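Justification of computing resources. Each target in the renewal requires a structure prediction run like the one illustrated here; the chain below, 156 residues long, is used simply to show the kind of job we budget for.
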Amino acid sequence: MLENPLDYELSLSDGWYRLSRNSVDCRFSAPATIRGVAKLYTISCDDSLLYVGVAKQPMAARLSYGFKANGIGGYHGYKWKFLETNLKLSIWTAKLNGVYASLYVMETIEAEVAFTCRQLSGKWPTHQHEIHFSPSEQWHRKAAARIYNHAVDKMR
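Resulting structure tokens:
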């Protein structure tokens, strides 16, 4: 099932980010670095969820793509990339029968996280691009509640 998250701080400035853990600059660690492993990630600030996304590529590549995008092909990148503040990034993976969960499973949880945000805060994640809803089961919703509650906890 859902594994414990990898938590990072993103310090945003000039349309780019600095990654740290416990205020010490760092790099991503596995499983965030593993290509092909579905990862769900949240971006939050204080007690607000800004964004929830999924990726199969390494997180450094995914973030780079979201920060560099300039509208060519219709994608403008992350809506939150120019906030110039400190954000919390949490990266989640899940295992089913000892195997990393599929992208479809993680997308189902992603949608439930966004919906949980809407139910509990009254608003969708403030910088969300899009969300794809799929039929879910109770365990998807429980995982989403855990992820949402973790995201809106104050920055540590």
